[in-house]
Amino acid sequence: MAAYDKHYVKKEYFGKPYAELIAFFEQYSKRGTLVDLGAGQGRDAAPLAKMGYDVTAVDVSQVGLKLIKASSPYIKTVQADVYTFDVSEFDIILMDSMLHFYSRDKAKESKLVSDILDKMKTGAVLVNFLMKSAKSEKVLMNIIECALYEFDILENRYIDYPEGNCQYHFLAVKKR
Ligand SMILES: C[S@@+](CC[C@H](N)C(=O)[O-])C[C@H]1O[C@@H](n2cnc3c(N)ncnc32)[C@H](O)[C@@H]1O
Description:
Layout: H1 19-27, E1 33-37, H2 45-51, E2 54-59, H3 62-71, E3 76-79, E4 92-96, H4 106-119, E5 125-131, H5 134-145, E6 151-161, E7 166-175
Parallel strand pairs: 1-2, 1-4, 2-3, 4-5
Antiparallel strand pairs: 5-7, 6-7
Helix pairs in contact: 4-5
The structure holds S-adenosylmethionine (SAM).
The site of S-adenosylmethionine has 18 residues, from strand 2.
């Protein structure tokens, strides 16, 4: 049983998708293949599929994936560990509330991001939402600065997360 299974009996456990996420993907002219790493109940995956993105939802929670499939049959659902999932063929890689960079996870999560940056194809976009924390954001930005490849920053700002009564750091980078 995955850790989040018990939470996903509650509808919209994480609330609604951020308005800024929706606006970003609505204006992003190039639809394409999108992988939502740690897709949860699909609060992001479902509206993105409706917009015309070819969405693959990856999560360890079979409960979450079943909810996604039930609401959006066109989304491909994959029960897998994001640490071993191959992102190299996707146009867009989305990570929402997946990274925290707490001390115990910092090395593992840093390597995950580095690997994604290395493996994603030229022109692919990584979109990440991280709970506001100067320390964690510094770790993330440092990984991007030290990456083997160059990235253009498409978004780098704070957004409100009313359900959590907090702000999130919204980062989108495109591989040159
Ligand atoms: C905080 S929730 C965020 C869910 C979704 N991204 C959202 O914002 O609504 C994190 C999700 O990542 C999944 N997850 C955590 N570690 C994972 C891993 N190593 N591989 C795959 N999924 C994982 C959990 O099962 C959970 O559904």
